[in-house]
Amino acid sequence: MSDVSIRRVLVANRGEIAVRVIRSCRELGIETVAVFSDPDRESLHVRLADQAYGLGGEASADSYLVVEKVLAAAKATGADAIHPGYGFLSENPDFVRAVDAAGLIFIGPRPEAMEQMGEKTRARSVMQAADVPVVPGSEALANGAEAANFAAEIGLPVMVKAAAGGGGKGMRRVDDPEAVERAFEAARSEARKSFGDDRVYVEKFLQRPRHIEVQILADQQGNCVHLFERECSIQRRHQKVIEEAPSPFLDETLRAQMGAVAVQAAKAVDYVGAGTVEFLCDADRRFYFLEMNTRLQVEHPVTEWITGLDLVALQIRVAEGHSLPFEQGDLAIGGHAIEARIYAEDPQSGFLPAPGKIEHLHVPAGPYVRDDSGVVFGSEVTPLYDPMISKLSVWGQDREQAIARLDRALAEYKVIGVTTNISFLRRVLAEPTFQSGDFDTGFIGDVIEGASEPDETFETIAMLAAVMDAFERDEAAEAAFQPQTSATDGGSNWRRFQLLGGRS
């Protein structure tokens, strides 16, 4: 393909990732088009784009996931390329083919690579053929009895997993042979509801595993490099909570080995663009292919921090046909970066989503602090979509400095109107096990989860009181302020604040 010049990008997404793409496009001199559902009409990504096009509908199934609507928006606005972000249509090969058929440029990999890596049992086979180490496991199994037999063959514990899974859905750890069939049927039911695909397989569970992923980037000329790794072991119910780069677990030898294997995996499917090869490492430092995400990752900012690269800009240049502007030997790790995902959720109520209107928002700043967000003061966190408020990331000269900087930034982050996980994140950072770097994917369940939340500081309480007082004195604000129901106390956020401030 000869180089082309992209002039207008339609961002087929919402929230912080849409904002992220729009900002890189603007720096490149590329116009942007935002699409939006009815609840997102006033969202930040809509305000920032050069053009905006309503998709109609409320839920994603009626808006962001409707291929015909997205393509109609591209045609109506004169876009010549589509960036999918992550989630929604980003890993849908049929969408890529539809984009191609419409004469548009898809900023991402080819559909064939998505198909080979999107279904987990097929991906395992492709990786085995490419001499990439994989965790011992089965193909898709017909029923629970087959699952029980295979589990007995490879030995417990095992993971029962949806073949088309992602995001922690359709996954069960099983330690009891009597529970394998029940876990199989439960995983099958969840997979059917979540993915429309009920195929399930069984995989050996690694003891004390580390979840480490390697960022790769490949161009259309066959060049491929890795941009080092991210440590993703701090997770809750298979969902990542805190990510960092580089991993405190890897030494230079293992880092080079995993990077080389990640590139090998990408080349096996003729990969183009940005992607992530995920691995599990056991306590003996053996690593195994887990899956490949054929898109930009949520946690890509930590890679950008330690490499100084703009991954979205590089995605666009690769899509235009440009060769990578560097080789593997040109790349080096600089410092340490950590990212925390801030959610509107209630840690004291099983981390249930806590939707509502953001009535006050103070975002931290200072040296080497970055907040990727799709919300502003007055934004509504709707139950229709993921309740993530932002990704707060920091850079430090070393891991110790990065931890201290992230904790400082989290302490400054103030949100009123919705319950958040900020205090929970600070507890994670404060744990000696986390600070030492000696943890695994069971860290939150084993060390953190179930413990009571710490009290807010008196400084925070005073700030809340001042803001609430301002609301009471401002008639307009008072009229607009709608107390949000809390799963914690069965009342409003205002009531919860009164209880917090009146603990004497």
Characterization of this structure:
With 504 residues, this protein is α+β, with helices and mostly antiparallel strands. It folds into three domains: 8-107, 3-Layer(aba) Sandwich (Rossmann fold), CATH 3.40.50; 136-204, 2-Layer Sandwich (Dna Ligase, domain 1); 210-448, D-amino Acid Aminotransferase, Chain A, domain 1 (2-Layer Sandwich), CATH 3.30.470. Helix content is 36%, strand content 23%. The chain contains 18 helices and 22 strands. A hairpin with an 8-residue loop joins strand 6 (158-162) and strand 7 (171-174). The longest helix is centred in the middle third of the chain and has 17 residues, at 252-268. The radius of gyration is 23 Å and the shape is globular. The protein starts with 7 loop residues before the first strand and ends with a helix. The model is unreliable at 450-504 (pLDDT under 50).
Layout: helices, strands, pairs:
Blueprint: E1 8-11, H1 15-27, E2 31-36, H2 44-48, E3 51-54, H3 67-77, E4 81-83, H4 93-101, E5 105-106, H5 111-118, H6 120-129, H7 144-154, E6 158-162, E7 171-174, H8 180-195, E8 200-204, E9 210-218, E10 224-236, E11 239-245, H9 252-268, E12 273-281, E13 287-293, H10 300-307, H11 311-319, E14 336-343, E15 345-346, E16 352-353, E17 356-357, E18 360-362, E19 369-373, E20 380-381, E21 388-396, H12 399-412, E22 414-416, H13 422-430, H14 432-436, H15 443-448, H16 458-473, H17 475-480, H18 493-501
Parallel strand pairs: 1-2, 1-4, 2-3, 4-5
Antiparallel strand pairs: 6-7, 6-8, 9-10, 9-12, 10-11, 11-14, 12-13, 14-21, 15-16, 17-20, 18-22, 19-21
Helix pairs in contact: 4-5, 7-8, 12-13, 16-18
